[in-house]
Design a protein that fits this description.
This protein is mainly α and 412 residues long. It contains 15 helices and no strands. The chain has a single domain (2-411), classed as Up-down Bundle (Amino acid/polyamine transporter I).
């Protein structure tokens, strides 16, 4: 459950339509979700060994700092704040906004609703970690319920869409572009590695937990996508921006669409609230290394919340939500995020070369597991940049700007 809880978020409720816009047959749509799960599993194994070797605060920041140079770690934290963490939060907030509009039909843009949601949750989390955790715990059940109802209703109550042959030629490049929303939905597999130190026998138990957890998520995601394709057809799926509501509308009418939209909107808020609490640990590590504002790591004496860090990332996420469409945000995030994932995979190769023997969990199949993961990451980046150069360029420019900023910071 720990592995599944770290992965299953909001992406599965919206990203199937983005995938269907890139590849146009049921087999390719489902294959993209299976391939994404394989990459997630390989990445989880890599991160599990890294967590065992470097259990200190900072996670990926610490891996990159110790394997390469503090500047590489700074660029990671820099892009976490300005691209990947905040962009991911913006995308999740837009997911909430679309299903919120399904419920209310409010004459307000997705972006404005998303920005307001980010503002409200930022205030909640600034009240303290305990308040944010309580919000998350109370809403987790609704996400599970929404997925179960969606699959059951789609299988048993909705009529299959008429089969129509696709006239669009799907290339390898199209499949690569489809992997962008898939991998965003699988995001979170890296957090499962943090439990390695708490296991009695991590070498035995962690691979089992990762295998069972990731395979379960693959089954879950493929089931939801299969139901969407079955009920809506590839063309119908590509045309809707709220696939879960469309499936439930076909199965149970407007009341079914309203029910699932309420469940998804609320559970999405819970996932977003949890995500707001994960990045401040990196800002802490950066401040401790003297490469970031000390004030960003300030803890409120009464609530013990990193108020400045939470507020700063909330403001940046709201700006991103207001600045582009959902698909643009995904491309902006993935093109940068998977460069850093690939670099983190390389860091395991570096650590193994320096210290071949280590305590705790060791990724099976090394170095092939790490090499396959790194290659997959950079292939996804190349495909995203080639397919969406303008959106990707913004994120890549911010990443590149982090290098001179680091050296200026160290100088002054």
């Amino acid at each position: 459950m720990l592995v599944m809880g770290g992965i299953v978020g909001s992406g599965i409720f919206i990203n199937p339509y983005v995938v269907a816009q890139q590849v146009h047959t049921p087999a390719l749509i489902l294959s993209a979700w299976i391939a994404g799960g394989a990459i997630a599993f390989a990445g989880a194994l890599v991160y599990a060994e890294l967590a065992a070797r470097r259990p200190e605060v900072g996670g990926q920041y610490a891996y990159l700092r110790d394997a390469f140079h503090p500047s590489v770690a700074f660029v990671y934290g820099w892009t976490l704040l300005l691209v990947t963490q905040t962009g991911g939060m913006a995308a999740v907030a837009v997911t909430f906004a679309r299903y919120f509009q399904e419920i209310t039909r409010a004459p307000v843009s997705d972006a404005m609703i998303a920005a307001v949601a980010l503002g409200v949750l930022t205030l909640i989390n600034c009240c303290g970690v305990r308040a944010g955790s309580n919000v998350q715990s109370g809403l987790m059940i609704l996400k599970i319920l929404a997925i179960a109802v969606l699959v059951a209703a789609g299988v048993s109550l909705a009529r299959p869409a008429a089969r129509t042959p696709s006239s669009t030629h799907d290339s390898l490049l199209s499949f690569g572009a489809a992997m962008t929303p898939v991998l965003f939905a699988y995001g979170g597999w890296q957090t499962s590695s943090f439990c390695a130190g708490e296991m009695k026998d991590s070498r035995r138990d962690l691979p089992q937990a990762l295998l069972i957890g990731v395979l379960s998520v693959i089954a879950l995601y493929v089931s939801v996508t299969w139901v969407c394709v079955r009920v809506l057809g590839p063309a119908g799926l590509a045309e809707t921006h709220t696939p879960a509501s469309a499936v439930m509308r076909a199965a149970l009418g407007e009341s079914g669409a309203q029910f699932i939209a309420i469940g998804i909107a609320i559970s999405t808020l819970g996932f977003l609230s949890q995500g707001m609490l994960t990045a401040p640990r990196v800002y802490f590590a950066m401040a401790e290394d003297g490469v970031f504002f000390r004030s960003v790591a300030w803890i409120h004496p009464r609530t013990a919340a990193p108020v400045v860090a939470i507020a700063l990332q909330g403001v940046v996420a709201a700006i991103i939500a207001l600045s582009g469409r959902y698909e643009q945000i995904l491309n902006y995030v993935i093109s940068v995020d998977f460069i850093l994932f690939g670099m983190t995979g390389i860091s395991l190769l570096v650590f193994r070369a320096r210290t071949p023997i280590s305590e705790g969990f060791r990724a099976p199949g090394h170095p092939f597991t790490a090499i396959a993961f790194v290659a997959a990451c950079f292939l996804v980046v190349a495909s995203t940049i080639y397919k969406y150069p303008a959106n990707s360029a913004i994120g890549l420019a911010i990443l590149a700007a982090g290098v001179p900023v680091y050296f200026l910071w160290r100088k002054h």
